[in-house]
Amino acid sequence: MFKIINKINVTGDVYIIEVEAPRVAKSILPGQFVIIRADEKGERTPFPVCDFDTNKGTVSVVFKAIGSTAMELLKLEANDTIMNILGPIGQGSCIVSKDSDNLKNVLFVADDLGFARIYPELLWLNKKDIASDVIINFQSSEEIKFKEKIVEVSRELIEVKDDIIDELKKTLNKGVEYDLVIAMGSTEMMREVSLITKEHNIKTIVSLTTLILDGTGMCGACRITANGDVKFVCQDGPEFDAWTIDYEEVLRRQKFYSSFEAKEKYRRENDKKNEAAAGLEVE
């Protein structure tokens, strides 16, 4: 069992829980995710990681209050426990490679849950003295309780409530020479970002975590085409070169699994396969 250290209602129906999981916290890299099972009857559900602390031995995940696992987590408070947390899963972000040493200016573009998911990468770059600017689309007028953490590790935070793509165009024309753009959030937004950055010839990475269902690659639900090759988001990603993705295929898959009921049914059908998954570090 794993103790919940903290639970935060970030804004609206978005929550973050911090879980004590020292082995996962010690080995996880920015860009990777975990699978949580709330109790013995619960489903194994993938969650994006929005923070981890190797000293405290904790991992924080962000989620919306939709779906059975999320609703079970909402019933829990600090000092309550969850049954297990599995990870880290997926590949670390490209920023953790040796090539990142040559980065000077990075731009993040985020909407939806992406505003919290960018934090581990922002923190990583900040520790390496690499400047990061952030454009975030906050649809809610409520206070964003996670925002101060982003401000601490970024050079500039630009908040928009309208068209994030228009703001991206303005930012790219301000004269800063960005080496890399990282987009996290809705597929439609990431597709538009990739079109704009290609015009400016700025390498761009997108995160496709919204496609992940079972997190082991056995269900095939997160299969995509990147640069003409078949890839699995949960194993080969979740981050990919933005210019290589077949976004129409991604949108079709998202539509097929658009309801949380459909996703949960699919997970249940694959639970036994998940039990046989190997090579994953389980706490």
UniProtKB/TrEMBL annotation:
Gene3D superfamilies: Nucleotide-binding domain of ferredoxin-NADP reductase (FNR) module, Translation factors
Binding sites annotated in the UniProt record for [2Fe-2S] cluster: C219, C222, C234
Stretches assigned to coiled coil: none
GO molecular function, one term: oxidoreductase activity
Alphabetized InterPro entries for the sequence: Cyt_c3_hydrogenase_gsu, Dihydroorotate_DH_Fe-S-bd, FAD-bd_FR_type, FNR_nucleotide-bd, PyrK_electron_transfer, Riboflavin_synthase-like_b-brl
Keywords noted in UniProt: 2Fe-2S, Iron, Iron-sulfur, Metal-binding
UniProt superkingdom: Bacteria
Cofactor stoichiometry and binding remark: Binds 1 [2Fe-2S] cluster per subunit.
Pfam assignment, any one: DHODB_Fe-S_bind
The keyword Iron belongs to this UniProt entry's keyword annotation: yes
Keyword match Flavoprotein: no
The name this protein goes by in its record: Ferredoxin--NADP+ reductase
Cofactors demanded by this protein: [2Fe-2S] cluster
The organism of origin for this protein: Clostridium acidisoli DSM 12555
Gene Ontology biological process: pyrimidine nucleotide biosynthetic process
Residue span(s) of domain FAD-binding FR-type: 1-95
CDD domains (alphabetical): DHOD_e_trans_like1
